[in-house]
User: Which sequence fits this backbone?
């Protein structure tokens, strides 16, 4: 009985640990300062990115701190960027965003404002610090579907009549099956002991 309880506890623990995370893409409308104007901000909690898109901006900030992002926190939070890529047009000048080792690129966010501090390079190669931000309005969240194992690609394996594909199985289901196999093994040992 003790072994069965341990196996059941292990199975339930694997379900709790391996269950799907609350992942999604959080979308905000934002009016940006410094002549950047209206844009959309999408924060992807799975890809750990904050992407600004608009007539004058196409910029993506990547920060591992955004993994598991679950919505606006009422306090201002600064995330240090792991990478930044894209362009923006401020007052008629086009700039490329760069991540420099000398200064950190920061993405700031709270319940109604967002902004970025970074280094920009213009077409002449001149680098300057640039800080922009604006008020956000939450417009929605798109939840990310669970990740399924992909069927193998390529030629059909010899001896296979079904085309060689497999049925996609969610990763969580594999852990559930393993947990039940552990319970079954524990119950089998218990019967043999009696």
Assistant:
């Amino acid at each position: 009985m003790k072994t069965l309880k341990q196996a059941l506890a292990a199975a339930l623990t694997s379900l709790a640990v391996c269950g799907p995370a609350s992942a999604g893409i959080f979308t905000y409308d934002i009016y940006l300062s410094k002549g950047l104007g209206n844009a959309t901000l999408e924060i992807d909690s799975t890809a750990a990115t904050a992407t600004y898109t608009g007539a004058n901006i196409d910029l993506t900030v990547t920060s591992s701190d955004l993994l598991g992002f679950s919505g606006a926190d009422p306090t201002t939070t600064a995330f240090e960027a792991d990478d930044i890529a894209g362009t923006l047009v401020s007052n008629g000048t086009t700039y490329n965003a760069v991540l420099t080792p000398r200064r950190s690129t920061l993405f700031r966010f709270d319940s109604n404002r967002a902004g970025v501090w970074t280094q920009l390079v213009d077409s002449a190669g001149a680098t300057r610090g640039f800080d922009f931000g604006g008020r956000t309005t939450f417009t929605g969240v798109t939840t990310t579907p669970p990740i399924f194992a992909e069927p193998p690609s390529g030629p059909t394996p010899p001896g296979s009549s079904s085309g060689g594909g497999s049925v996609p199985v969610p990763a969580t289901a594999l852990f559930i099956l393993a947990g039940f196999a552990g319970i079954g093994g524990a119950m089998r040992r218990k019967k043999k002991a009696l």
User: Anything to note?
Assistant: Residues 11-21, 148-152, 159-170 have pLDDT under 50 and may be disordered. Residues 1-21+168-194 form one domain.
